[in-house]
């Protein structure tokens, strides 16, 4: 008797597994989506008289969809973008100056694919972080690994006593396809912080994309990192393969505060 016939007789004579036991077995094997939808899946298969290959195709489709969803959730969690408004809510007419073409091109993730950098320069409240978070979110959706951190978070994380621990952390910041460093210039740091930021930028130089938002023009970065000898080299690495775009205008938050004050005045 052939192996196929032996397998067929064995499967025919085997006692059927209870649905609950089958669901548990599928869960242990990692088939979570199928396990959670087992009764519905079997009901549809029976009603539709699916041949075995159709059932297997549906199993593969369910698992693929579920694993893609879980991967997205995990990468968004690790990215730590947080809450943000979508670009559909961005008022392009509010800034006095903004290069829309550069930003919309960045949203296509061209600079990530090319391992280039993007630097958004502008006063507080003009939407730099909003733009950065939308780009980061688009990159996660496209399957890229992304980290979104403030400059303060990164520099505080790297301020550790153990050289080996610092090296491991630097490797971690060098790994993702896109590293977003938000709010450079909002606080002042010592020269050691500049050295640490330089190491992050240098590790990614011509290898991985960096997105930076800053409220300081480059000529004022020596005020952010006073007495730091590496500022020129840091900026050289950051801007060598980069789109640097300046956003000018009045803060959105100031406008909103003025509108709210005006509304309250009309109601009183």
3D structure, described in words:
By secondary structure, the chain is α/β, with parallel strands linked by helices. The chain has 2 domains: 18-74, no CATH class; 87-255, P-loop containing nucleotide triphosphate hydrolases (Rossmann fold), CATH 3.40.50.300. It has 14 helices and 5 strands. Strands 2-3-4-1-5 form a 5-stranded parallel beta sheet. Helix 11 (191-204) links the parallel strand 3 (178-184) and strand 4. Helix 5 (52-79) runs antiparallel to helix 8, helix 10 packs across helix 11 and helix 11 (191-204) packs parallel to helix 13 (231-240). The longest helix has 28 residues, at 52-79. 25% of the residues are buried. Mean pLDDT is 87; it is low at 1-15.
Give me some keywords for this one.
268 residues; alpha/beta; Rossmann fold; five-stranded parallel sheet; 14 helices; globular; disordered N terminus
